Automatic annotation (TrEMBL):
The keyword DNA repair applies. Residues 254-273, 281-319 are annotated as: Disordered. With LigD forms a non-homologous end joining (NHEJ) DNA repair enzyme, which repairs dsDNA breaks with reduced fidelity. Binds linear dsDNA with 5'- and 3'- overhangs but not closed circular dsDNA nor ssDNA. Recruits and stimulates the ligase activity of LigD. Belongs to the prokaryotic Ku family. This is Non-homologous end joining protein Ku. Keywords: DNA damage, DNA recombination, DNA repair, DNA-binding. PANTHER family: NON-HOMOLOGOUS END JOINING PROTEIN KU (PTHR41251). Residues 268-310 form the Rho termination factor-like N-terminal domain. Transmembrane segments: none annotated. Residues 53-181 form the Ku domain.
Amino acid sequence: MPRKIWTGSINFGLVTIPVGLYAATEDHTVQFHQYERGTTDRIRYKRVNERTGEEVGYNDIVKGREYDGGVITVEQSELDEIAPGRSRTIDITTFVDLTEIDPVHFQKTYWLAPNSKEHFRPYNLLRRAMQDTGQAGIATFVLRGKQYLTAVRADTDVLALNTLYFADEIRDPADLLGDQPEQSGPSSKELQMASTIIESMSGPWEPEEYEDTYTSKVEELLAEKARGGEVAAAEAPPQPTDVIDLTEALRRSVDEARKGRKPRRAEDLSELTKAELEDRAKDLGIKGRSKMKRAELEQAVADASAEKPTGTRRTRKAS
């Protein structure tokens, strides 16, 4: 059971529904400690008074800011007292069409669940009503000392709460692009070819088909180093397409699309484990694979794959 990180209520109209807030996602990033190079000595951080050099206990630390030439400190209890709704309510002020919210505003997703069985009925009423109308409730609430703009929406079985960036937190993309160079727009022929490539690569959104291969590679790196084995470097990223070669690159991609193949770059075999490489080599009929080092195995698989028509190989997921 996930840990409840906030308890409060959703308010819409004169209806109040007690709910709990739960994280909807979890981070699988490999976590590292810090050590002094060449030793197994852990590095620790301390809270130190910069004037006296003495360590300060966590309970003796308060928040503060420079203000009018001095420093003003505040207690957490003072911040809690001025928080809207005392940090315990999600007040829906309006309902909007969910499709009207630009994805750039979405920040993080949480699940909302009723706090007790007797509150299931009003909870499900709100969820079903928003599901049927396609509306999301816009509200603000305070979590961990920060006020958030949120969109409460109906998910399959539960209410979801998405924290949103306020309008003044969204950077203007025009500042990044600056002045556009002359003739930067695509020609009609280029646009037609690019559209053909996109259509040939189109498919349903299936999130379970995508995996964090980098985390798998980090785990494999640690295991290889523990065994004293060699670590193969990943392939360098592809070079940017030269503007002069753009039309030719598009033409070749369209040719592949018309032959029923999705345009693809050379497969990054470094994402596969050695066992998966050996299975791939077996599929391709590569002889002497059991005696090959990883780098030799990758090269042999790459060479054999290039000679074999696309679509005839079995694909395997990185573990």
